[in-house]
Design brief:
Jelly Rolls, 166 residues, seven-stranded antiparallel β-sheet, binds fe (ii) ion
Length: 166
Amino acid sequence: MLVTHATSGTDPKISLSYPDGSLIVRTKEIPWTPWGMPGTHFKLLHCDDASSLLVILLKVDPGTIAGVHKHFGAAHAYILDGGFGYEHGEVFQGDYLVEAGGITHQPFTGPKGLLLLGFMFGPIGGFDDKGNLAGMLDIDWHYQTAKANSAAGHIHRRSMEPAMAH
Ligand SMILES: [Fe+2]
């Protein structure tokens, strides 16, 4: 069916979620929430427990050295603004990168800071000074943290809905 104009869902401030899984997320309407490291902020755009997928906008202040963290699944990102550096090199506005699942590293931002659109296929673990796993940023953490900041009203987790009998 060819649709040449929308007949519903046209309010640019209201996010939409459909039973078939279709989504429109008005990211401008979502407030920034502090992320798991100092100087970092996120907007949770989408999550899917079944595939352990998290989609976020991540903003990092200029001159931030991230905590040492491990990616338990691959993280894909498109750099919207600024950039950052890590052991594999530097990434700039317009770059697309993949941080492989299983890597542990400590990125840093320059004077421009960073804004990226990220797709994480699994949680991120943070380590303390002794190299011990100190915390996990998984889907639950992102959802609960965003929700506490009134920034998850557009998120509908199918895993939290009641079972359906057939
Ligand atoms: Fe990373």
